[in-house]
Write a structure and sequence with these properties.
Chain lengths: 384, 384, 384
């Protein structure tokens, strides 16, 4: 009775960051399967192209597109390396590692953007990541899953648990903005208030870590883990690729940020829109595809958990970490005082998701409506 | 097993827009039953009175009251004609037709009001219709149903489905207001943004149509339909009365709008209050009575669906259509940038309704509290 | 089958305001048990100390602390006297009495504060009491209960009923603020609007009274009552102690308010923070401890009902009563136009609680997150 669910979990997990082929590969298979080669080769090509367009010229837009592609593929490579490290450290540690490293590209991009003084872009990208997950990706999941499989159930205990925690974290995240805008005496102290909130949120995250390590996932309820049978890669290969991919991701993130503003200027796209939509979607592309794939295969509860967990990570870890690092490293100081429209948009998105969760079911029309709300918000930010 | 629910549905439906007597009438009954004569005769008398007070004078207030009564009775006549057309076109088409024609009086009134430049009144009436349904009518349903039958259940899948879609539609509807008020760069583009939102909402409505046609109701989850057994009226009679009632409704709507401002001035009622309360209640009187009747007969889930469906129609169809028509016909341009208090009031109302739905039960004290919230909002708008 | 639940209810009730020992005491026990002596003696000592520090000097901070302690212990004594009056008047009347007298110390403090012109402090304390219950105390309940007993269930019908009513009452309570801030024509009429809302809320409370009297609890769903078996005190003793404790509470409330501002000035604490955090927690200390005790003993549904019922009482009775009394007695006129940050904070708290209720479960991490949100709000108000 214990073996079957474990196999299921392995299937899920191998499938999460890999292709369907990868999941089907037996543990005794070759060290590198086709999808590994695709990700590795694609990353290499994209990094080279990004480097060429960065240093040899060729226009801001190609440089931007190449670096965006390279960041995305490196993120996939990081995810895959962690998977292969997986059962060497146990599922709990793997989950924590994956959670920490999964947001690495977003962290790098944000740090370089802060170094370049693009505070508004970083703030928009943080909120934009939350919006993209809760509205666009969740909507796509509902549409794809609903059209294929009819009404889908979401209401697992875990899903509702993540939603409540996400609601609480986002509430904490936006309180400094509220205080700064409507409580005059707090406005001059927005930096201090942001630091306090960041420390509180990180403490809250730390409190969830023991349960995550025990349960096998630091993402609180996401059945990640990543050990598709026995590891295919040797320890040295996995660690080596992880280190290389992470290092390259840092470089490419720098190029991405460097190309961002000229490209946006060339395309007449406002800073707010660039952060909210473009950076947010580029930084989460892999996770987003995974969620939609899961919904397509009628694993609606799992898809929901994956999609909703990402904004939770942003509110609980990434945003607070950036606030603290921006002060430690002397970058442009990031505060949690977001533009009012960002606060309203995230409040709308979070409340809607929370209601859909407690409703316990989804259909494709609700999915279409979620996408519609996302498009309207994106349109409102079109005019920077 | 299939026959009984069909009969039940027929009973429901015959009863929805007709009196209890009508529902009890067998299919082989007379062409006109008593309640038909009452509606027809009442409409005729009210239209004549409205015409007289309109063109012969007699004061603004009587002219306003007569035209309001005439609009209401014509709305009932339109509903009844569509019912009789019912099973000739199948329940799906009937539902769509009913949905489209049910909002006809509100559409006419709004168009004439826009022609007269009363943009603020139309905006207040749109929000006011939503508020009246979600707070006042729902509250009355809970009080009447709860006092008669104790705690009532609401939590059908359908009811929750409508609520989530209503929540999403209202969120889309109020986003342009938020953008206009707090996102400075979007403010000059409020017309464009309103058009984009309107197109998105109408597309969303179009997506729901196939399911509605198949399911037998364009109102997404409302078990309307309208064929109380075999039709009592001949096709010619039904079409003729429908055309005549619709045409008259257009004229009388003009008179209603014409009398509105002088009557409000005579009664010292502000524009905001007139739109939010008086126009909103006059335009929805029939639907409102139906909902409360259903609750009184312990059909709480059905009553809930009818009452919550109406705001969904307003957000998804009526408001976007008016925005587009106001620009096509060169009327006073209607935007979706509502006064901030309207946005707050509708947000409060929608969130409360959503919680009451997921709570899954209602009692009369909750109903009294809903009415209390409505009264407080109306009071706040008393001072225009 | 009927006897066992009644015994359970008695156990619950005796335990609510008493210690565990009190609940276990048989009806034939001594008139005064140890915990009675502790409360009585403690109250006497605290009142004497408070009087001494008030009239003989000794610094603002000691005077403030002594009077806060005295108010808290007198509140416990009032609660215990009402319990002993309990079964002489039937559980319904006892519940109503308890509900009315339970808020007596808060009422006295608020009235004296209004007499001293501290309108902002009273407003902050009203909202602060709601926040403290919904975030801090509920969070403590979840943490204590969750760490001891794992995931706890909350989703009783009653709990959800109270939550919906609380949501509706708080919505009504904050509507005047919204109207005053965003609906310009209503702003000059904020006094009138506050009176209208107060009358509506008190009417709503009056409507709930018959059901409360019948059901045995005026707190709508809280299984209070207070008769731990037969009463231990004679009627004369109970009435005498009740009268004495209430009278003393009035005096000590005056001293508390008198010492408040100098103490806050000495401690460099802003008025907003003093009202929101310090007065709010001092006024609700007893109820708060009871709720956490219940959660610790795995009675999570009951604990939830006790904790959520308190904000309902504040919104439905205490706040409206203070608005009306402040005008009747010619005190500084209290309106329901709260500072915007208070409105936002209470909206966040109420929505979060409502979602946690419909979610139907709690764990200690959610509890920690609730406490985190409370700390962030309190921090935002630190800068007055």
């Amino acid at each position: 009775m214990d073996v079957a669910p474990v196999r299921d979990a392995q299937g899920d997990v191998g499938w999460q960051y890999g292709s369907m082929t990868a999941a089907a590969t037996p543990a005794s298979g070759p060290a590198f399967i086709r999808s590994d080669w695709l990700v590795l080769g694609g990353s290499a090509v994209a990094v080279v192209l990004a480097g060429l367009t960065r240093y040899l010229g060729g226009g801001a837009v190609p440089a931007f597109l190449c670096s965006a592609l390279a960041v995305t593929l490196l993120a996939a490579l990081v995810g895959r390396s962690v998977e292969q490290l997986g059962d060497r450290f146990g599922p709990g540690a793997t989950g924590v590692l994956q959670s920490a490293l999964g947001n690495l590209p977003e962290l790098f991009i944000s740090l370089f953007a802060l170094k370049a003084g693009l505070v508004a872009v970083v703030q928009a990208a943080l909120i934009g990541s939350i919006l993209a997950n809760l509205l666009l990706v969740l909507g796509l999941c509902f549409v794809v899953g609903g059209l294929r499989h009819g009404t889908q159930a979401l209401g697992s205990e875990r899903a509702r648990g993540i939603t409540v925690l996400m609601l609480l974290s986002v509430a904490a995240l936006v309180l400094p903005s509220m205080a700064s805008y409507v409580h005059t005496p707090a406005a001059p102290h927005e930096g201090t208030l942001s630091l306090v909130v960041s420390v509180v949120l990180l403490l809250l995250f730390a409190l969830t870590l023991p349960a995550s390590l025990k349960r096998g996932s630091s993402r609180l309820a996401e059945p990640t883990g990543g050990e598709a049978g026995a590891p295919r890669w040797s320890l040295a290969l996995a660690v080596g690729l992880l280190a290389a991919a992470s290092l390259l991701a840092a470089f490419v993130s720098d190029w991405f940020v460097h190309a961002l503003q000229p490209a946006m200027a060339a395309l007449h796209i406002s800073d707010a829109f660039a952060g909210l939509v473009i950076v947010a979607i580029a930084g989460n592309a892999i996770e987003n595809v995974v969620g939609v794939q899961l919904a397509a295969h009628n694993q609606s509860e799992y898809a929901f958990a994956v999609v909703v967990n990402s904004p939770l990570q942003i509110a609980l870890v990434l945003a607070p970490l950036l606030v603290i690092l921006s002060q430690l490293f002397g970058l442009a100081p990031l505060t949690l005082v977001f533009a009012p429209m960002l606060v309203l948009a995230v409040a709308v998105a979070v409340l809607i998701t929370a209601f859909i969760t407690v409703d316990g079911e989804s259909n494709w029309i609700e999915g279409a409506a979620l996408i519609a709300v996302y498009l309207i918000i994106a349109t409102a930010f079109w005019w920077g």
